[in-house]
Amino acid sequence: MHSPNTEPTVHSIHEPVTGTWQYVIADPSTKGAVIVDSVLDYDKEDGIVGSGSADRLLEIIASNNYQIWYILETHAHADHLSASRYLQNVLASQQPNEPKVCIGHRILQVQETFGKMYSIPPAELENAFDCLLQDHDELTLGNLVIGVIHLPGHTPDHVGYIIGTNVFTGDSIFNPDVGSARCDFSGGSANELFQSTQKLLNLPLHFRLYTGHDYPPSDRQCSLTTVESKALPFATVEKQRKENKHVRSGTVETDFVTWRNERDQNLQLPRLFHASIRTNIRGGRLPKTSEDDFKIVNVPEGTIRIV
């Protein structure tokens, strides 16, 4: 799944409004790079779409002379709009090859469920992504290998990406003092999430588990002065095994499942749920016009591909 002697350069960019970690991961020898879980800014009340968070990624890419090969999604996010198509559009004009937008192949199941729920025309979902990844697929990135690992539970389509000794886990596991993600969305499963965390916790102790979100508790002690608001991008497998408040070593699956299900019953939908799902199952494309609970008034002209 990975080349043990080749490690990537990892740029971690925290988006504080939705608590999302965005990543640019590069092969230092060839400057080939990928983007994982990008964010397109969205003001629900005003209906304004912005590219500020994604532009931070573009600044990193330009300053390091990276060539983006793939724009990777871990799953169909329910709390932020993906900037994948914005980034693809901009990068296609700046480099020889247009990067491919990729996601796990079980996105087809998620598209079917939410496409019916939101009455989205099937044509808007067909071939919405450039690449559907199978379990255990490997993508080449210069001298690096990107391994695809299925990590269901939060959503059925959820995958992670193993690059060297780094795993980009999306919402399958959070930092130790945050714990685990909800499982109450359609197709979610607390049992499957527990099994996914065990896949990750059975990796070598020194592997870094990069999380998709961080919501730092007020009492978190953080010595990294460059990290915004005490948000941390990763914890090692060893630290997760010892300290994860929900799935540390010794946690019994039935206890976790009972607790997780009870907790999820009292959670409200994410604030941007309807806008996020509708955009993200379309492969990061926005609908032509406003829809129920998805107000669109202003979009950066010439950058977002409208279906």
UniProtKB/TrEMBL annotation:
InterPro entries: Metallo-B-lactamas, Mito_Persulfide_Diox, POD-like_MBL-fold, RibonucZ/Hydroxyglut_hydro. Residues 19-213 form the Metallo-beta-lactamase domain. Gene3D superfamilies: Ribonuclease Z/Hydroxyacylglutathione hydrolase-like. It comes from the Eukaryota. One of its GO terms (molecular function) is sulfur dioxygenase activity. GO terms for biological process: glutathione metabolic process; hydrogen sulfide metabolic process. SUPFAM superfamilies: Metallo-hydrolase/oxidoreductase (SSF56281). PANTHER family: METALLO-BETA-LACTAMASE SUPERFAMILY PROTEIN (PTHR43084:SF8), PERSULFIDE DIOXYGENASE ETHE1 (PTHR43084). This is Metallo-beta-lactamase domain-containing protein. The lineage of its organism: Eukaryota, Fungi, Fungi incertae sedis, Mucoromycota, Mucoromycotina.
